[in-house]
TrEMBL record, chains A, B, C, D:
Catalyzes the NADPH-dependent reduction of glyoxylate to glycolate as well as succinic semialdehyde (SSA) to gamma-hydroxybutyrate in vitro. May function in redox homeostasis and play a role in oxidative stress tolerance by detoxifying glyoxylate and SSA generated in glycolate metabolism and GABA metabolism, respectively. It holds the Pfam family NAD_binding_2. This is OLC1v1006526C1. PANTHER family: GLYOXYLATE_SUCCINIC SEMIALDEHYDE REDUCTASE 1, OXIDOREDUCTASE GLYR1-RELATED. The active site is at 171. GO terms for molecular function: glyoxylate reductase (NADPH) activity; NAD binding; NADP binding. It catalyses: glycolate + NADP(+) = glyoxylate + NADPH + H(+); 4-hydroxybutanoate + NADP(+) = succinate semialdehyde + NADPH + H(+). Residues 3-162 form the 6-phosphogluconate dehydrogenase NADP-binding domain. GO terms for cellular component: cytosol. Belongs to the HIBADH-related family. NP60 subfamily.
């Protein structure tokens, strides 16, 4: 792969760009607050003065922005990606954005002759640093193939999922299963406790069985102590449940468990728990015990 | 531990008794059809002519029967455990039985001065052969402690959960979470498929994330091929959901996800899927696609 | 109809027996606390000194007791119905009891050669006084036919539903629909209120439309004022939901709405609302607004 | 009230305009296919050549169009309402449209200085002919007050609900309760039938009790014969459930019963029942019995 552009030096972007540098890629970085690029420069990165400047210089540019407005801004604002993207250049948006944002960016890039790939990741700070992200790519297949060497050092695994939008959909499906599981887990913890069993023992038993999984292991001990420090805020999880249900509605898929879980998360929001971790739905199940 | 009695040479019991023999325990076995004891005898086991005869000879006797009627039968029928159990002797029922059965046996044993432990296991044929069962014991603590050396060779881990009944309750809680998860998983598989995503890719993505677990890994590939060969029959899973909900009712625990999952399993029963694996609830979610 | 016996002079029994007297029936009454019979005697009733004495005197005897223990007690205790029931005599239990209680009484009566009818009623104090009850009879058809003249003055309508147990089942089905409707109604009231609409206007609109019904009209105004004075306690409604779901389980009927409503009632019990009216589930839906 | 304009001579509009004529109002009508105005003219109506012409002539104009595109068309197309609406004139849209359509029309009318009222109705052909509609008005209060004489002859009752959008919201709340009730009713019918009770008797018992309502009475007999001729198509009912749940989501109202009902309607859509009456959800509950 030629020199790679990288827009967005937040916690995730910085770690991902660093991995590229460490594995010998030439990287030109940009960030709204330029000082956040310093560490990268020490490791050999060049700096571009605007997204457009980065795109001009590089055949491929990756964006890793914090949210949809930021993702739109680097593309459409003055000095944005759109000013220099053209045939022969590619833009890979690895931010987590909604389908609308993704398709707006996709249309703008391709209408200028550029190639586009959405490639949201699963995994947070630690996996980003360790090059252990899971990358859900969708859009231009040729661009995906060109990006594989970069994906290989940023992630442990990348998937090509077809047309633009499929990356976001896959994340919704996964998060929908995760949200329902968190509810089932919460109900189990409360049922055990109220039935005179030890919640800790339940965690130990679960850990040894067919449904053992990292989420139960990571979050269970905090939950039984009433600690719901936000990693993935409940209101975002509820939004993903809602979007997954809407996707099901479009396709006439009846999902009674997801629907019940969504209402439980809404109950939690109603109780003011929206900014806590999504595991705080446990507090709603606990009810008066709390 | 002294010589151990072992009643019931079904698939599970035979594998468990064999592990005891392999690790140097002296074992006296009994089975309704005596020929099923032959292989054990070749490996050094003695044979008792009745449950009572086994109990008479051994300080501790383990029962591993196929169902509640069989579990009651070895205790209460002519020549049953009850005829020889007495102070200084213990009976450990490792069968999976309901709370009523367990407490009937418990009362009978203790009223004769004997010690009683219920110790249902989690895990099937393979873990039984490999000594990798998880043992959920409840009842007489001293008997539990005496049984630890035997439990250590039959299982990878044993838990003491308090009073008789708690072993069964813990299994219900675990199976309730499992049943809800299976429903969430099924909804996710169908949502992916109907939204134009590959079910196999969903399995691959799940396997790499925070909710990866052996059940998804084991059952997922079969499910997307419509293969629901029974390991744990759906009607039994639904019965456990119902019992878990009843336990919640007693303790005023509201469990909307478990309730929705229970109704989905009932729908599957209504569609004639009760004897298939509990993963066949997937077929119900699929609906007309099938 | 010949002279009728009447056991149980509670609020309901007294009103029902009074209607019989007013319409010219000869009635012999009994009550545990005999003084509660005085008013009836003023209106021409005779008094029996025990249930057995009443049965001895009358060809047909009606029981209207407060709960299953009381219903069992008048039949099986010393001086009970069972001592004098015999071929040619009938016993009609109009109490609301569970299926087990009903079938115990049925078996005892019929094994002595007597005829038995269960005939629980729908309607409370006012309909009892006005002869406007709805009577759900099941058991001996000939006894039902003989009782029609009495049923005609106590109720506005009676049904014969077949074998013993069907009266109780029909009540469960009706109460299940009622409990689900109460939940839907509560959700609607809260949705209107939280969306900036007037709850009172919602009541007015509902009253004019296709789903107008006495329950919404009667309970709605109290509910929007947070008044849940018990007419039918929430814990009893939840018990009926549970029994209806169990009936569905036996017959493989999947009832996701009833299951969700049952969990909402359990949530309300968990919040300490079990002794309020079943409309108090509204308070649970309100959540933090309260 | 001065001369009234009336746009849209469909089944509903024709019956409503006829009632105005019958009660002595002067009415100028318009319809895309002009011949549909003939009968009105025989009863004394004038005809306008376009919506704009009607608005020019009348102080108040009512629109009753079949769907959102038609409602938008009479306002915005060439010769539309917008060309002549101005200060001192009012437009009352009685069509059933979504919130977006309503607010687009509202903004256009008021930006030209006109008054606007949305006034969707509850009730179909027969109530329209009999002047028995229920009118849910929202928007300009003064216009509402001016329209009361007309509303009084078209409907049995009208409500003023505040700002534009509230009429649509009130309909959603009512339809949400109705959809949940239809599900509860269906579950009850199937539970009765599968438990050996007569569905017809259940209808009779319900009719006499606290939850008796026109919908059960009207639709019940057809449902138990498997007749789901569409009056209100299931796919529209499901859409209203979805929109009501979305309204709840905005306001953090948890509605588990509505959510379960919505999934049941989606199941029915998945089974190809979307174009039948919404009572066809009964067929889904029936399952294999069908």
């Amino acid at each position: 792969m030629e020199e790679i552009g990288f827009l967005g030096m937040g916690i995730m972007g910085k770690a991902m760009a660093m991995n590229l540098l460490r594995h010998g890629f030439k990287v030109t970085v940009w960030n709204r607050t330029l000082s956040r690029c310093d560490e990268l420069v020490e490791h050999g990165a060049s700096v571009g003065e605007s997204p457009a400047a980065v795109v001009k210089k590089c055949k491929y540019t990756i964006g890793m922005l914090s949210d949809p407005p930021a993702a739109l801004s680097v593309v459409f604002d003055k000095g944005g990606v759109i000013e220099q993207i053209c045939s022969g250049k590619g833009y890979i948006d690895m931010s987590t954005v909604d389908a609308d944002t993704s398709s707006k960016i996709s249309e703008a890039i391709t209408s200028k002759g550029g190639q586009f790939l959405e490639a949201p990741v699963s995994g947070s700070k630690k996996p980003a640093e360790d090059g252990q992200l899971v990358i859900l790519a969708a859009g231009e297949k040729l661009l995906y193939e060109a990006a594989i060497p970069a994906f290989d050092v940023m992630g442990k695994k990348s998937f090509f999922l077809g047309q633009v939008g499929n990356g976001a959909k896959m994340k919704l499906v996964v998060n929908m299963i995760m949200g329902s599981m968190m509810n089932a887990f919460s109900e189990g913890l409360v049922l055990a406790d109220n039935s005179g069993l030890s919640s800790q023992t339940l965690l130990d038993v679960l850990e040894l069985g067919a449904i053992a999984n990292p989420m139960f292991k990571m979050k269970g001990p905090a939950m039984i102590q009433g600690n719901y420090t936000p990693a993935f805020p409940l209101k975002h999880q509820q939004k993903d449940m809602r979007l997954a249900l809407a996707l099901g509605d479009e396709n006439a898929v009846s999902m009674p468990i997801a629907a019940a879980a969504n209402e439980a998360f809404k109950k939690a929001r109603n109780e003011g728990l929206g900014d806590l971790d999504f595991s705080a739905v446990h507090k709603t199940v606990l009810g008066d015990k709390q």
